[in-house]
Write a structure and sequence with these properties.
Length: 200
């Protein structure tokens, strides 16, 4: 086996080759690095990640500083909602024609296809790979193994959860949970997925 193959075979499954290559370049190391040295550098980087992110934001003014009284803030929104409900809504009592509904549907579908050429529709389920992945889902690592089992007992894992040491909800709040590149995702068996999250 080559140095690269040996290293990749002994690293945690959530570390893909692309990320390992980026780490080695950042640390000025090559593929001959030992697994122990790599993991020591990796764990040090993870432990200081939040501190480094905090430092990078120092001196930058928050986008919403001093804007607590925005039109959509919690204090004014209930009043606006009440005004727009029932007969206060300009569209109250009206209905879209079937022709208009078809146009809206067609426009949304065309927009989706332009953004994601590999996707023909959106199934609307939170765990649907067509929602999680913005690429062709067959490019997700371990796709062929999952497909061979008809995807039963397989989960899609976000590498960023482990890479950034954050939760699914954090990724959702930051807007980086859905429509992700295939190389940020990996198919894991249910037991592998649960084991990985227990260690996080």
């Amino acid at each position: 086996m080559t140095n690269k193959q040996t290293l990749m075979a002994n690293l945690p499954i959530n570390l893909c080759e692309k990320w390992v290559r980026q780490y080695l370049k950042r640390w000025n190391k090559d593929w001959s690095i030992s697994v122990e040295e790599f993991m020591a550098l990796y764990e040090h980087e993870q432990s200081t990640l939040h501190e480094r992110l905090s430092e990078s934001h120092k001196g930058h003014e928050a986008w919403n500083k001093g804007k607590t009284d925005m039109p959509w803030s919690g204090r004014k929104r209930p009043d606006h909602s009440a005004k727009m409900s029932g007969k206060g809504n300009p569209f109250y009592g009206k209905h879209h024609t079937q022709e208009t509904k078809d146009k809206i549907h067609k426009t949304k579908l065309e927009t989706l296809k332009k953004r994601h050429p590999s996707r023909t529709h959106n199934k609307g389920m939170p765990g649907d790979p067509n929602n999680l992945c913005g690429d062709d889902i067959s490019k997700i690592e371990n796709y062929e193994f999952a497909k061979a089992d008809n995807f039963k007992g397989w989960d899609i894992h976000h590498r960023l959860e482990h890479e950034l040491n954050v939760t699914k909800q954090d990724l959702i709040d930051w807007g980086i949970y859905y429509d992700r590149p295939a190389d940020e995702l990996i198919y894991l068996t249910r037991s592998q997925h649960m084991s990985l999250h227990r260690k996080m």
